[in-house]
Design brief:
Blueprint: H1 4-22, H2 26-45, H3 51-69, H4 82-93, H5 96-105, H6 113-125, H7 133-144, H8 152-155, H9 158-174, H10 178-187, H11 193-266, H12 269-301
């Protein structure tokens, strides 16, 4: 009877955290679920809570961490503190979430499939935020081949099926390993091989289209940049030509002005008068000499 009080309180706190999470009030939900998660392992060992409640707490914790670490899904009203975000990402990169569960239960096959699924869903959702995404794919593969899919329980286990789906239809295609994905699908009793093959073909075609679209966008962007660069060069060229033309025009105008000034200077009245005066003086001089010559001739004759 004494144990029912903590169980009731913990379950009440879990339901409250779940309610806040569903309403996207992460500022209230996250601190509550973190507190519950930090104590749930010890509480399960001491039989203070049931395994069912333990699974609910851990699953909600992993789900909320995945949401808050994914910028596209995080609520704008709540952001993880930077140190907390770094700590969580490091725990994903170290695979400490899965390792803690495996150690607690004594092996990968003993971990409840719901928690196994949520742990690896978190890893996959945050693969682009860690420094080595390939390590997550490698851990998926290692755990996959450690599981037994031929048991009666496995055939009806929806969370184990979801784990297989992520591995076959997400993790392997992300690494362009479609042949291996098809091989795994054909060898796994939880999957319909024909449906899996059809789905993988669709995924491959979709990835091809996405790749082509991305390449076309890149080419279009490069062509746009090329055209922009050419227009910019043409603009600079025209500006230079206009500047050169303007400079030549100004220089030509200046030269014409200088030429006109020179011509005006050469045909100015003072210059003309000087020329006429010089000419008259020369004529006078000639006339003077002529008179003396005539007089000398007369004297000789006499």
């Amino acid at each position: 009877m004494e144990l029912s009080v903590p169980q009731t309180v913990i379950e009440s706190d879990y339901k409250l955290a779940l309610k806040h999470f569903v309403n996207k009030d992460f500022g209230k939900s996250y601190p509550t679920i973190v507190k519950l998660h930090d104590t749930c392992y010890r509480n399960l060992e001491r039989n203070i809570i049931t395994e069912a409640l333990f699974i609910k707490i851990v699953a909600l914790y992993l789900t909320q961490v995945g949401v808050l670490l994914n910028p596209s899904e995080a609520n704008a009203s709540f952001r993880l503190p930077i140190p907390e975000r770094k700590r969580l990402l490091q725990s994903i990169e170290d695979n400490s979430v899965y390792n803690t569960l495996a150690q607690f239960y004594g092996g990968v096959r003993e971990v409840p499939s719901e928690l196994l699924y949520h742990a690896f869903l978190l890893n996959y959702a945050c693969r682009k935020s860690v420094s080595d995404p390939q390590s997550i794919a490698a851990e998926f593969q290692r755990v996959y081949y450690s599981l037994d899919f031929d048991t009666d329980n496995a055939s009806n286990d929806r969370y184990l099926k979801r784990f297989v789906d992520i591995y076959v239809f997400n993790v392997l295609p992300d690494n362009e390993e479609f042949d291996l994905a098809l091989q795994v699908a054909k060898g796994n009793p939880l999957l319909d091989s024909e449906k899996a093959e059809t789905k993988l073909k669709g995924i491959r075609e979709l990835r091809r289209q996405e790749k082509d679209s991305k390449e076309n966008m890149t080419k279009a962007k490069m062509e746009e940049e090329k055209q922009r660069s050419m227009l910019e060069m043409e603009k600079k060229k025209r500006a230079k030509e206009e500047a050169d033309l303007k400079y030549r025009s100004l220089k030509q105008i200046k030269q014409e002005h200088e030429k006109e000034r020179t011509l005006k200077s050469n045909h100015s009245p003072s210059s003309h008068d000087k020329s006429n005066t010089s000419h008259i003086n020369q004529l006078s001089l000639r006339a003077h000499h002529g008179i003396h010559f005539d007089e000398a001739s007369k004297d000789t004759k006499n």
